[in-house]
Amino acid sequence: MATTLQRPLLIFGLRGTLIERLHTSKLPSDITVNPQHTFGLHKVWVRPHALETLVALSEVCDVALWSSTTAKNTHPIVQGVFGHTAQGAAAAAASSSSSNSGFSSSGFSTPPAVSIPFKFVWTREHTSTDDFRRLLSSQHDDDHATIKDLQLVKKSFPDVLLERTILVDDTPSKSRLQAGNLLWLESFGEKNFASDDGMLKLKEFVMKEILPAPDVRLVLPRRL
């Protein structure tokens, strides 16, 4: 008798993976694609096909979000773009911090078009520092480099199987502790606002190779 496989858990990064967020003072002059959202003094671009792909994948997979930005900056964006509201302590912390900073989901110019059922939304507070990248930083982003340890997910959600867990991120070093679970998506930013097809490639890969794999590490890591 065939064994029923547990639904895969896809854990997505946020900035550079699903969205790009730029302060109005740092907008390149050659951007020709309008942002989908205005968020206070920030413009937010959603990766092409991200919303419909997340909706489709959530029917056959569990989906979660793990951002390397702080809770006060993450939760309002996740609510404003993906229609997911933080719960419990995370909601209280995000609300307090957002009120103090003026960074809240009520500042979005348009309401979310969907509501993505994320299993959890984690933030920088759930990561550890990548001391190696920070020590040898060659660009500003390296100063804030983080590591995402899937063992923490397993500890918080005992039903999660690492052999069915995929970390979807545009920064491969974040998966250094479990590199065999990485699905490396090309970074989303101003260079590919209009032409990016990364989410379409991801959906096809998940449907064809991840869903039937008894252990996703047999087909990962992979770069799309």
Describe this structure as you would to a colleague:
With 224 residues, this protein is an alpha/beta fold. The protein has a single domain (9-223), classed as Rossmann fold (3-Layer(aba) Sandwich). It is 26% helix and 17% strand. It contains 6 helices and 11 strands. The protein has helices at 50-57, 71-82, 88-101, 131-135, 150-156, 198-210, and strands spanning 9-12, 19-23, 37-39, 42-46, 62-66, 121-122, 128-129, 146-147, 165-169, 182-184, 222-223. It has a 6-stranded parallel beta sheet, with helices on one face. It has a 3-stranded antiparallel beta sheet with strand order 2-4-3, with no helix packed on it. Strands 7-8 form a two-stranded antiparallel sheet. Helix 6 links the parallel strand 10 (182-184) and strand 11 (222-223). The two termini are 34 Å apart. This is Mitochondrial import inner membrane translocase subunit TIM50. Pfam families: NIF.
Work out the radius of gyration: 17 Å
Report the CATH superfamily: HAD superfamily/HAD-like
Could you report the average pLDDT, rounded to the nearest whole number?
86
CATH architecture: 3-Layer(aba) Sandwich
- Shape by Cα distribution: globular
Taking strands numbered 1, 2, ... along the chain, how are they ordered across the largest sheet? 6-5-1-9-10-11
Largest pleated sheet: 6 strands, parallel
Number of helical runs?
Answer: 6
GO biological process, one term: protein transport
Protein name: Mitochondrial import inner membrane translocase subunit TIM50
Pfam family, one: NIF
Subunit structure: Component of the TIM23 complex.
